[in-house]
Amino acid sequence: MKPFHYLRPTTVKDAINALASAPNARFIAGGTNLIDLMKRGLVAPEKLVDINSLPLKKIEQKAGFVRIGALALNSSVADHTIIAAKHPLLAQALKAGASGQLRNMATMGGNLLQRTRCPYFYDTAFPCNKRNPGSGCSALEGINRLHAIFGFSEKTGPPTCIAVNPSDLNVALSALDATVVVQNTQGERRIPFADFHRLPGDRPDRDTTLEAGELIVAVDIPDAPFARNVHYFKVRDRASYAFGLVSVAAALDLDNNRIKTARLALGGVAHKPWRLFEAEKMLVGQPVSETAFRQAAEVAMRDAKAFEHNAYKLKLAPNSIRQALTLAAGIS
Amino acid sequence: MANAHQNPAEPHPSLDRVDGRLKVTGAATYSAEYPFENLAHAVLITSTIAKGRIRTIDAKAAETAPGVLAVLSHMNSPGVPAYGSVKLPAERAPVGTAFRVFYDEFIYFSGQPVAMVVANTPEQARHAASLVHVDYESEKHQTDFEANLSKAAVATSVQRNKTSPFQDYDRGNPDAIYTAEVKIEATYTIPTQHHQPLEPHAIIAVWEADDKLTVYDKNQGVKSAQGNLAQAFKLPRENVKVNSKFIGGAFGSGIRVWPHTVAAVLAAQKVNRPVKLVLGRELMFTSVGYRPFTVQKIAIGATKDGQFTAITHEGTGQTSTYEEHLERTILATRAMYVCPNVSTRYRLLNLDVNTPTWMRGPGDATGMFALESALDELAFALSIDPLELRLRNHADSDPERHLPWSAKSLKDCYRIGAEQFGWKNRILEPQTMKADGMLVGYGMASSLYGFHRHPSKAKAVLLADGSVVVQSATMDIGPGTGTAMTQIAATMLGVNPKKIRFDLGDSGLPDAPGQNGSSTIPSVGSAVHAVCKALKIKLLTLAVAIPGSGFADVRPEDVTVKNGRLFPSADSSPGIAYTDILKHHKLTQVEVTEESKPGAERDQYSMYSFGCHFVEVHVSPVTGEVRVKRVVTCADVGKIINYKTARSQSIGGVVGGIGMALMEESAMDHRYGRYVTTDFASYHIPVHADIPQIDVFFVDQPDPYVNPIGSKGLGEIAIVGVAAAVANAVFHATGKRIRQLPITPDKLL
């Protein structure tokens, strides 16, 4: 680990200025991913700006949306009464992630920026386009059991990166149409969740559209009728404390037995949380039924493509979509 | 039968762990935690290629980095005397050469230590390590077991040793398999699996003088570590002290002295300061051995009513290019069941990897996964209940050595396990039992483990206040050795366990074997038994000399003990307090040392532990996820010393077996000859949520022949057979036979 300077500002302005003056500085909050990255030598900031003293921990109901401060802990959000009442999908996703100890450290803002768990990214002995652009993607013909089936481009050659976003929270926030609120030296910027995370394209090193020097201050979740019929379904290699093989965030607004609105997002299948807009559209107006859910899953999987070791996801993902919808609808 | 909570017949049925409070309060000192002024910290730099040689090492930037004391490599190592000097022209080490750290430029595996930075702080060492640039000349490597399987051969050490148990073995007619009425044949694969104890391996090396070395080291045998280090550095044995009082798990990873230990000792020599080295989790995958990748082909022939007529078992295990690691993979097949015609073959495949080592239930956990899975396949083919098939082929004596068993209560284990589990509720046909939308499967498997007892010494000291100190250079890697030994001594001497202290983990104590092969209770327990008996006799001698004590003409075998007092017989005479015996003779203490060792009984009886496991799994038809819902395990390991620790050990074995069956796999990218699963996010071991109710039962009958205490070891047999029981349950639930571990959801979809 490279020696670094450390400071702990108490205002958002000071924090942003501290970063602006040092190009190789990083914010640190829970440190549950950044410290790993520093230990493995993947990032070597000259300066760590500890933002834990900033007043960004609140969870509040605002007019038309819930605002979650960027420093709210995963565990605090998961157990908060507002979240439980209005966005149980979020609570379910948070509780499906990591371990109790990690959830007590990890923050909302940090979770959005969690890097992939692709093993080739973490071990500097392997080529990796995400770590070292241009060096190649080792996962492509390597051990890619955990890797993407969506969102990589083959137009201009082999995919640049088939790593997946590891966050459970992101999948739920994607389904809930959240907005990421960021501050920079110019002021505030609001980024719709769908635009926050990127596909690898020609810049697989960039996970998000967050610009250098910007600080996430909050996540806004618009009020929506998804307090009842929701389910976060996560498939993993062991019962707890494992990154998802595939996960599904499903939210339904039902009128009697008819679907008024549907939200669906997949985790563990792409470089970003994979929102299933087409499948959602297909479900609207349909009665709750196995047929509708099967059709939605079929639509969702249209563009999927597997590699040597992850072909099982082509079956696991649609199975999981159907199961998540079934559980969300409350039928069994 | 006794449920594993406590045995009311025991005077101290479930003595709590004597070191439990120290461990849970953090007061126990582990190897990396000894404080030293002037302590320096080391970080290893390891090879990123699997085969080739080091061209250059550029350490200039590291050497001038803040706090750096030295950068060690083969270029400047003080040298390990036992290695000798490099013979020029340098050649790769031949098979049979233990890896020599910082010796020459050759690379044998990815992750091999090539250099080490020593600095004032761990952070400085870690940073400086990132500044060292190693330039390699790569050669084509071979690490892919399955792609190279055809190159497997009989180990050279076996070729040289005609009496090796790993020689090709044929009993009866090897061709009988071809004429069997019913036959199944299948190939089973176990991937490389790593011990991964939670405490990483660590050492603090201290040169007390030019010829005096002390190490605080994580290992499983202070005496063997002492011997190995003395030999490596050509020191008198007594000049090397090894201190390993607390070990945070090992499962076999600490049986050998590994290169990193030697590297730390070299570093301490180089900088002339105490040096600490703690392996990072990723280095735990290439530094301390592993359960080798193994492919096994088994065929079983049987009559239509399920009587075995022939078994063939071929096993091939992975090893390095420089050492041959052999394990029992195929051996259990010769002894486990009655069968007139049995053939076994054992081959090794040398690859450009580090050397494997023994991991809990070594060989037997591997071999019994294959054999017990194959039995389940045969039971299905014959439409016979899998337990009934085992009973029909039960071996009443050892069919390999043609000797009686010293003791065997496997049928009792089957009965207890089946009753407690409710095996009778199992529906024979797979894929028929369901609950809550899940496929339900019941599976079972047998287990066995050979009995090991080694010569062992113990010392007992009775002090004037009536307290007793018992000492032996044995270890506790987790099972509760100190607790069990305290209990044996307490029972033998009639002294309250609170007044007994048992010392272990120090090479200065009386000789004892390392903690491996489930040999600690049988060996060291026997020594403690012997030394306490000797102490009792000595006290009797002293008591006889006290006028009017009432011990004149009392025979040693009639003496009884209770509450720190010696009684001439079991009747109600007042006896005499140990403290009074010492007081009378004006002694501050009475000390005895005894050795206990196996004898001719080994040639008269075949000695094994036996047991079985019953497992219920639920498999999701939607996701292929397998969850173990409950386990009943029953073992016949002779007399149980402490029910509480024995139960914990059985539970630990089952947990390890669940990991082996469902999760553990060290995946290697063969293009680079390098593991990709080098952290706990990618190498999965079970978490609490994976572990259901585990009910443990013991037959608890002393084995009359194995040793004076009638107790066999438990550590290994606790895991043997578990993976097969899980796989068999998965087959029963799904109708899918997974022959390649681990059974992950993708394999069941």
Automatic annotation (TrEMBL), chain A:
SUPFAM superfamilies tied to this protein: CO dehydrogenase flavoprotein C-terminal domain-like, FAD-binding/transporter-associated domain-like
UniProt-recorded Gene Ontology molecular function terms: FAD binding; oxidoreductase activity
Chain ranges of the FAD-binding PCMH-type domain: 1-226
SMART domains: CO_deh_flav_C
Alphabetical list of Gene3D superfamilies matching this protein: 3.30.465.10, CO dehydrogenase flavoprotein, C-terminal domain (3.30.390.50), Uridine Diphospho-n-acetylenolpyruvylglucosamine Reductase, domain 2 (3.30.43.10)
Matches recorded under Pfam families: CO_deh_flav_C, FAD_binding_5
Keywords: FAD, Flavoprotein
PANTHER family per record: OXIDOREDUCTASE, XANTHINE DEHYDROGENASE SUBUNIT C-RELATED
The protein's name: Xanthine dehydrogenase family protein subunit M
Organism: Larkinella knui
From TrEMBL, chain B:
Domain Aldehyde oxidase/xanthine dehydrogenase a/b hammerhead: 25-140
GO molecular function, one term: oxidoreductase activity
Residues making up the signal peptide according to the UniProt record: none
Pfam family, one: MoCoBD_1
Protein name as annotated: Xanthine dehydrogenase family protein molybdopterin-binding subunit
Species of the source: Larkinella knui
Organism lineage: Bacteria, Pseudomonadati, Bacteroidota, Cytophagia, Cytophagales
